[in-house]
Specification:
Layout: H1 2-47, E1 57-60, E2 75-80, E3 84-87, E4 91-92, E5 97-98, E6 117-122, H2 124-127, H3 138-146, E7 149-152, H4 160-169, E8 178-183, H5 185-190, H6 205-217, H7 223-228, H8 230-234, H9 236-243, H10 246-251, H11 264-285, E9 288-293, H12 301-316, E10 320-323, H13 343-360
Parallel strand pairs: 1-2, 6-7, 6-8, 8-9, 9-10
Antiparallel strand pairs: 2-3, 4-5
Helix pairs in contact: 3-13, 4-11, 11-12
């Protein structure tokens, strides 16, 4: 009977050794994960203090719960049932404020009844990211120049598809006299990050979809698949580092194929289609429509081609177009980066747009 006892003791000894080294290994992973989490928190604490060239953001549910996206900045973006995401209402920060409807405030007192109302849609340039205050935005300065109410309904990252959806689902209820789409860059630039042309004119959808895929793996009906995804649940930051390291490339966890982006012509066509729909909606909801394509600092040839292609098609459809990228008034010192403008740049945009509104009599004869 002695050999079985020795075997039993050996098994217990082996189990103890495995338990010790497994615990040690998990402990080391936990320490590394804790360090990475602390580094991440400190990084975003510092980034949140930055203003220029843009405000950092954070994704939340529609009622304000963090959905765990990588960014943890001060500008809170809330999921929207139609437009993917918009601004979370009722925000107050050092350099911007969002009202109870989710619109950036102008820093001006609310206009009296009877004044004309302009609604501006667009991305971060129209929103005024990187500016020191609400009063520096194109919306605020346009309100002062024309003595009208200007609603800044722009949302950073929005493309023309989201602007169209947001306009139809929410903004037409404001009964605007004029809708201005101050955009272009996001539709042009986003195509460089896409392989699926169905996502043209949108932003944020692919990131949220990727996150849903990762979370779905943790609740897969297959027990083995759930076990395989446990590292992402217990050590998400460490798993992310490994995936994007040489080990991840060697293991084939990353797609090493080059992304084939949609063409400029296809992106411009989708942009024109979305803006044309905004224009047609104006007939039903009794507002006029103006497209103002934003400038870029270096007058890049590809973006110029995008604007020229879109402008020609829009004018052919009878839509008012203002190509700000072709204007000489914009100089490099007005840009915070490739396309975000400082207060002086926003003033120039407001002046040019106001002159066109007055010249065309878009709002009223006295303007």
């Amino acid at each position: 009977m002695a050999p079985p006892l020795r075997l039993s003791a050996s098994i217990r000894y082996l189990v103890a050794i495995l338990f010790f080294f497994s615990s040690l290994f998990l402990g080391i992973l936990w320490i590394l994960e804790t360090k990475l989490e602390g580094d991440h928190a400190r990084e975003w604490t510092e980034k949140s203090k930055e203003v220029q060239p843009y405000y950092w953001w954070q994704f939340l549910t529609h009622d304000g719960r963090d959905i765990g996206y990588e960014h943890k900045g001060p500008l809170k973006l809330a999921l929207h049932p139609f437009a993917i995401y918009t601004n979370l209402p009722n925000q107050r920060a050092d350099h911007f404020s969002i009202d109870e409807r989710g619109f950036r405030q102008t820093g001006l007192s609310r206009p009296q009844d009877g004044k004309k109302r302009i609604v501006i849609v667009g991305g971060s340039t129209a929103f005024g990211t990187g500016l020191e205050s609400d009063r520096e935005t194109v919306a605020s300065q346009l309100a002062e120049i024309l003595d009208v109410e200007v609603v800044n309904a722009a949302v950073i990252g929005h493309g023309s598809g989201q602007e169209l959806t947001y306009l139809l689902s929410d903004l037409v209820d404001l009964h605007p006299d004029l809708v201005i789409a101050l955009d272009g860059w996001n539709d042009y630039y986003k195509r460089l990050e896409l392989s699926d042309p169905r996502l043209l004119g949108m932003n944020g959808f692919d990131q949220i979809e990727d996150q849903l895929i990762t979370l779905a793996g943790l609740e897969d009906p297959s027990f083995l698949r759930r076990v395989r995804n446990v590292p992402w649940l217990l050590f998400p930051r460490l798993s992310y580092r490994v995936k994007y390291s040489r080990v991840g490339r060697w293991a084939g966890w990353l797609d090493r194929e080059e992304i084939s982006s949609p063409s400029i012509d296809l992106a411009a066509t989708r942009y024109v289609e979305n803006l044309t729909k905004m224009h047609k909606i104006g007939t039903a909801f009794h507002y006029r429509f103006l497209v103002a394509m934003q400038p870029d600092v270096d007058h890049g040839r590809d973006y110029q081609t995008f604007r020229e292609t879109a402008e020609s098609a829009l004018r052919h459809r009878g839509i008012r177009v203002l190509d700000l990228g072709a204007r000489k008034e914009f100089v490099s010192t007005m840009f915070l980066d490739q396309m975000h403008l400082n207060a002086a740049g926003h003033r120039v945009m407001a002046d040019i747009i106001a002159k066109m509104i007055r010249a065309d009599g878009v709002l009223a004869k006295q303007l």
